[in-house]
Please model this.
Amino acid sequence: MTLQEQIRSNRLRSTIVVFGFALLLGIVGALIGVIFNLSLGIVALVGAGLYAIFAILSSRRMVAGMTRAQEIGPDDLKPLRRIVENVSIAAGLPVTPDVRIVDDPAPNAFAAGLRPTSSYLGVTTGLLRTMPKRELEAVLGHEISHVRNRDTYLMTMATIFAGVIALIADIGFRMLIFGGGGGRDRKGGGILVLVLAIVGLLLAPYAAMLLRMSLSRRREFLADAGSAEILNDPEAMALALKRLQLDTTTIKYADAAVAHLWVESPTQRVESERSGVNFLSGLFDTHPPLDTRIAALEQAGGFRLPDELSSDEPFAKELGLDG
Amino acid sequence: MLWVWIVIGVVVLLLLVLVYGYNRLVRLRQEVNTGWANIDVQLQRRADLIPNLVESVRGYASHERETFDVVTRARTALQQANTPAQAAVADEGLTTALGKLFAVAEAYPDLKASQNFLELQEELTDTEDKISAARRYYNATVMAFNTAIQSFPWLLLAGPFGFRARQFFSAEGDTARPEVSFAT
Model:
């Protein structure tokens, strides 16, 4: 499968996902219609549609807001921009994505934007302070693969739709609990239908989340492989992942809504420590475990990672960042 | 009547495969062209930096004429290269020539400290990195295209529609096998 074919299969998948979400949205609307009354269901759907359109139009800013990524001046951090430029050239991107900085000690990175021509990468200061150049390149290669594979488009859409579904399901549920329920005197469907509808309303956000997660997980393997291919250096990606694994700081602003955008799951450790239920946390993780990802790279590249990580200077030194 | 429909069905199917295959080859070829354009931009940028670099060295070491000539010739060779393999050879030639120029520069501390020279040197290093990045992409697209036109069934299309294997950007000229000469 060549890259372009991969991209096209991704586009097809995007279409399916958009329809999947639309279907889910329709179900939620219908449920609200059953529980309350039909017109409320329609109002909810139209409102959700408008909100989704608004969200798509302002997604660039929204993601930047949720991740606290800041734009940098044209002359700042030139060496970092250079790396991004070189990696995008090697990836064959038509336009080099912008770079934004997240002031956070946890090493992580993300890519966002609907089109490859209007994408940007977010990099935490922690990443710059942790990674030597070779591994930083690999991480940027991973993010640029997401841009090239149109994952960012798919993920942005998925985020917005999942958010919209969660929002209206939540509103419907609140109305149910705090009075409301204007249509309950309408004895149309009977108590069983009502109970089923409520259960459906409860489960809808989880269904949306599952849909979103299932999308992002295999993309991580693809992006790892993409980085290895772009840089012709699978070991660098594996080393970078190993370093992320050994690092214990998690992102301060880990907003669950954008968790799947990052290179390493920002909430993973928090979640796995919090919940003892492994099966469920496995299902809801946005990222496959780092061990699995490293093993996949080792297998593809035919190498074994050394036990010790290199003690090369972090890239922040070259950038002149303090610390 | 049944067999007529079967024949029509088979013909339509074949046509669809043909259209798909043709479009796929065109797309792959287009990617190779884009990849080559990317390299070309960087090669041009590299060539554009050379006159300034030579001037800035000449300001301090005017008598090193021979080295300047070597660099200028290498630059001209790069600009006149017609094929990816030629360009790759010329690009390596330029790298060698520049190596000599920088070796000359070593002997002039004032030059090495000059801001202009340092900036040019940095630009040049950056361009070289970009050339090797663009090379990786281009060679990957060539690999995909060449594999496609040499594998069944698309190789049946490649000939009649004029899809020819493309050269890698590599000084070894991966498409042209090294000529073994038995002459002594």
